[in-house]
Write a structure and sequence with these properties.
mainly alpha, single chain, 240 residues, Four Helix Bundle (Hemerythrin (Met), subunit A), DNA-binding, 3-stranded antiparallel β-sheet, disordered C terminus
């Protein structure tokens, strides 16, 4: 019998944590595709565990929005964000990251600046390889943004970013990141690091805004290329 739509965060156990991480990674890597039905008993058999930790893990994933649960229908992988959701996600990131880097610029933490520069250098190195290791680049990119926000010293801003992190990772599946796109993104990172180094809060905020505008533009260009310019709106259930 499948769980109902009522989603509660269960108590954490080591086994539940392992099942949760495995399922979460499979969803993020699109091994479990958007809309796919998730049968707890089948997943449990595949992972050689009892159904209980699987159901607990699925409830946690549902609380994060990676999985949906419906009465008598069980669990499904949540659909990818709609075009309008993608835009709203990037706008939310702008609010968080602009506020964070503005604060970080006033601190100019030496260690954080060194680590940010090292990540930019790492991404530069990755863009010189052909083909581009997209997974490695995205991992370094995510670490860069977490570190830039964390450098503010404001844990609430970092928590706000982390709350969006899973959807940020999923959004990257819209972008078939090319070497050219990766180089542009990293050039924008470099501008932000320079503003932080200079202690220029306004400049850092603007650099963060410009970078996230660039991210949105690149995502939209990729969507236009791959869906013929149709904007998908999951909320309306239409394609236009």
């Amino acid at each position: 019998m499948e769980p109902s739509a009522s989603v509660e965060l269960p108590a954490r156990t080591a086994l539940t944590d392992r099942v949760y991480e495995l399922l979460r990674n499979r969803i993020i890597d699109l091994v479990l595709e958007p809309g796919a039905r998730l049968n707890a008993d089948k997943l449990a058999a595949d992972m050689d565990v009892s159904p209980t930790p699987v159901r607990e893990a699925l409830n946690r994933l549902a609380a994060e929005g990676l999985v949906t649960a419906a009465p008598y229908r069980g669990f499904r992988v949540s659909p990818l964000l709609s075009r309008s959701d993608l835009a709203q996600l990037l706008r939310a990131r702008q609010v968080i990251e602009c506020a964070a880097v503005e604060q970080a610029a006033s601190k100019r933490g030496k260690l954080e600046l060194q680590e940010l520069s090292a990540l930019v250098a790492r991404m530069d190195e990755l863009t010189r390889a052909k083909p581009l290791d997209v997974k490695a680049f995205n991992s370094a990119d995510a670490a860069f943004h977490r570190l830039a926000v964390g450098a503010s010293g404001n844990r609430f801003l970092l928590q706000a970013l982390e709350s969006l992190h899973v959807h940020i990772q999923l959004a990257r599946h819209y972008q078939g990141r090319s070497v050219t796109e990766a180089k542009r993104a990293n050039a924008e990172h470099r501008v932000l690091v320079q503003a932080l180094t200079d202690g220029d809060g306004a400049g850092a905020c603007q650099a963060a805004r410009d970078h996230l505008d660039g991210v949105l533009d690149r995502l939209q260009t990729h969507l236009d290329t791959h869906d013929g310019g149709r904007a998908h709106d999951a909320e309306e259930g239409t394609t236009r």
